[in-house]
Design a protein that fits this description.
The protein is an alpha+beta fold. The chain is built from 10 helices and 10 strands. The protein starts with a helix and ends with a helix.
């Protein structure tokens, strides 16, 4: 998980409002072509080594969504709030650039009073440059000894990647599919797709429970999920391409699968 796509995959998963697809019009396939055991295997493989990625080193907080790129250390304001939670939990430290913080605060006040020129007059070029790019904060993120120790439960290759590429991965826990409640089969663009709805059990890491509680989004041990699987005929395997998870007694809050279905329908 060292990318924006990874972070989006973890933070926003799938609400299903499904329609049958086909290149040449709707065409349902046999749902029995994917066994429950094969579905469980594909879903649990998608969870392997699941963790929250935190970028270490120089970071910037941008107020412009189009500039956000976590891999390059450019965070959204919402993401930055999540980093501050992990700082409060003793996992990382955030050393903000005091000179830039003072400059940013001065500019915010200048904008509020309509005296924008006062913000930039006599200011070093490197401060002006970042502010004009929409940077609100900048600083350095470092892992603590506690943060480093948390990664010990992750796969060795994931730990090595994190250390070599400037990431800290926060383990989430273990997940096990219990009951498959629905399978639906679809065909689009010559490919086979399956929607699978299921209940699953979560054994969560204490740090993740603390994190989600502070976010106001506590995660229960009993959960439900819906995923979209795509079949790879060359490997004879199914892989999860869209996902949605929620507490068993809650509603799904994201719509990744419907958006993906719409994309398939438009092609």
């Amino acid at each position: 998980m060292g990318s924006n796509d990874t972070m989006r995959r973890f933070l926003g998963l799938v609400l299903l409002g499904f329609s049958v697809l086909s290149c040449n019009g709707p065409a349902a396939l046999s749902g029995e072509e994917l066994s429950d055991s094969a579905a469980k295997k594909a879903i649990e493989a998608d969870w392997a080594g699941n963790a929250i990625p935190l970028r270490l080193g120089q970071v910037f907080v941008s107020v412009l969504p189009g500039n956000v790129n976590v891999s390059d250390g450019i965070l959204s304001e919402e993401f930055y709030k999540r980093y501050t939670i992990f700082q409060d939990l003793g996992v990382i430290t955030i050393a903000l650039d005091r000179e830039y913080e003072a400059f940013s605060a001065k500019c915010a006040q200048a904008v509020a009073t309509g005296a924008l020129l006062a913000c930039h007059f006599g200011t070093p070029a490197h401060l002006n440059s970042d502010y004009k790019k929409g940077i609100k904060h900048r600083g350095v993120v470092s892992k603590t000894s506690r943060g480093d120790s948390l990664m010990s439960t992750l796969p060795k290759e994931k730990i090595e990647y994190a250390k070599a590429n400037g990431w800290l991965y926060i383990p989430v826990g273990s997940f096990y599919v219990g009951k498959i409640v629905e399978k639906a089969a679809y065909r689009s663009q010559g490919a086979h797709w399956r929607m699978v709805s299921f209940f699953y059990d979560a054994t969560l890491e204490p740090i993740y429970k603390q994190y989600t509680a502070r976010l106001g989004e506590p995660v229960a041990d009993k959960r439900k999920g819906r995923v979209l699987l795509k079949y790879d005929p060359f490997k004879s395997t199914w892989a999860v391409v869209a996902r949605d998870y929620a507490n068993a007694d809650s509603e799904f809050r994201t719509e990744n699968v419907p958006r993906m279905v719409q994309e398939l329908e438009s092609k």
